[in-house]
Amino acid sequence: MPLVVVSFALLVAALAFGAIADPEWWKVVILGVVQGITEWLPISSTGHLLIVANLLDFQGSIGGTFEIAIQLGTVLSVVAFYARDLLGQGRALLGQSSPEATADARRLWLGVLIAFIPAAVVGLLARDFIKAVLFDTAEVIAVALIVGGVIFLLIERRPPRLATTAALGQISPLQALGVGVAQVFALIPGVSRSGSSIVGGLLAGLDRRTATAFSFYLSIPTLGLATLVDLLSSLDRIGPADWGRLALGAVVAMIVGYLTIGWLLRYIARNSFVAFGIYRIAMGLLILALAATGLL
Q1: What is the pLDDT of residue 13?
Q2: Rg (Cα) of the chain, in Å, rounded?
Q3: What is the dihedral of CA 117, 122, 124, 125, to 10 degrees?
Q4: What is the mean pLDDT of each run of 10 residues along the chain (296 residues)?
Q5: pTM (two decimals)
Q6: What SS3 class is residue 206?
Q7: Residue 143, class by beta-carbon neighbours within 10 Å (0-12 exposed, 13-18 middle, 19+ buried)?
């Protein structure tokens, strides 16, 4: 209940500020909703944000910084969703829990660190190229969505096999590295960070729920660092109105993202990723059609 009250208060304050200070506040709200939903679903948040911003003729992108910076809201949503678990793991890491819990927590966060490194290194080295060449390119996003959708369908058509890992505390360093390598592909807009890391987890032997939860934990350092680096490198281009848009977008993304995490975990407990694969292919084809007609 306290989280609901605080979130509602933040949303009301952000909406009030936006409505007063920014005539495009409603576009920011739409983009915040898109970010909150698509960050956790394996359908590419960056790809959807770039396309929707283009369709809305949104003028506050700041060269792609807006689309990256409002990810802070979804980082906060996963921290809030797993707050109790994170506190328990913190106590375990400090040796205040049972030896088994301490071992599981250390193994989990070692895995997160290992999985985080590949995308962090490649992202820092290729950041300028990615933003200059790949962002705002509808064809790149469309192809990435289609390829990712086909991969999901192929994975779900594999002969059933027993997953070797069904708990976060049992993920091995080699499995974590596999997830990290897969996440590197998410630097391409349209691939999906959650989608690539979940696929990496499935191929590494994690069951669906564990692969999805590990992807959520991995998002904390991955999205957190990406947001921090992009904000710091773009400070000279961010004006007062931009800060208001970033705050409003992040708050909306946080609230919607929190709700999306719970829904996705319930969904994958009973369903496969086939629907997401079909959606990705359909969306990619739609984007190609819009680009061909000059609407994008």
Answers
A1: 57
A2: 19
A3: 140
A4: 52 54 81 93 88 86 79 92 93 89 94 96 83 74 94 86 85 97 92 92 92 94 88 83 85 92 90 94 93 84
A5: 0.86
A6: strand
A7: middle
Q: What SS3 class is residue 164?
A: coil
3-state secondary structure of 165: strand
Backbone angles phi, psi at 165, to 5 degrees: -135, 120
Q: Give, for 173, the enclosing helix (H) or strand (E).
A: helix 173-184
The domain limits of the chain are: 2-292
Which candidate, 36, 175, 188, places its Cα nearest to that of 119?
Answer: 188
Residue matched to tokens 């679903």: 41
Q: Which residue has the tokens 């897969």?
A: 182
Instruction: Identify any residues that bridge with 165 across adjacent strands, giving them in sequence order.
Output: 206
Amino acid at 20: I
C-alpha pair distances (Å), 116 with each of 69, 87, 206, 217, 269: 18, 21, 17, 10, 26
